[in-house]
Amino acid sequence: MPKSATLSGERRRTEILDAALRCFDHQGITSTTIEDIRAESGASIGSIYHQFGSKDEILAHIYCEAVFKYRAGLTGALRSQENPKSGLRAAVDFHVQWIDSHRALARIMLRWDESELSAMGRAMLSEETRRFGVELGQWLKEAIGSGAIRSMTPDMYAALLIGPLLEYGRRQVHNQTTGPIDEGCRELTDGIWRALAVASAEGS
Question: N- to C-terminal Cα distance for the chain?
């Protein structure tokens, strides 16, 4: 296939996904139709179905690509610092800044449960979910080994680490947070760290 045709196809695919995201965000996922996406994107119905088989497939691609990029950035930030608390602060900063820059995507990610995706969407996410678990688990293992973080069950780590990030994110996308972002990041980091850290490491 000529390179120009490939670039044209990629451009059209991106235009359709961007238009669908705007429709999903403004009208809701359930209320949005393929015709809405066609009108917003300027693509033909044939072009949409050539790129994607259904509205569910469009949603799966939007959701999964956002999750891939977000999780990779989050775990990359965690591991970007040698000190566990500094890594946590980097991850919180990434989380808050990512949501601030991708509010429409974040609204979909935060209100749409993975179990509601089509079978294709769940299959797309399965390997990424495994990778994310391994990456996060490795960071926690190293932090526990260093004596910085307490040893707990996996469900407690999810509640104490991921839970506050998701709750703050929900408030952020609905403009319910107060104060500067930097202050929010600092307070969020301190709160999560106090919940995870061994007593001797809380102030480090």
Answer: 57
CA-wise closest residue to 117 among 60, 167, 155, 163: 60
Check: CB of residue 110 under 8 Å from CB of residue 173. Answer: yes
Six-digit token string for 130: 């495994």
Distance CA 91, CA 97 (A): 10
| 134 has pLDDT over 50 | yes
Report residue 52: phi and psi, to 5°: -140, 145
pLDDT higher than threshold 80 for residue 20? yes
Indicate the Cα dihedral angle 193, 100, 98, 153, nearest 10°.
30
pTM over 0.70? The answer is yes
Q: Quick one: DSSP state of residue 197? A: B
Helix (H, G, I), strand (E, B) or coil at 2: coil
Report pLDDT for 122.
85
Q: Which two tokens stand for residue 122?
A: 């769940």
Amino acid at 194: R
The full set of domains in the chain, from first to last, is 1-53 (1.10.10.60), 60-201 (1.10.357.10)
Collect all residues with Cβ–Cβ distance below 8 Å to 42 and sequence separation of at least 6: 15, 19
- The residue-averaged pLDDT of 108-121 equals 78
Dist CA 159 CA 163 (whole Å): 5
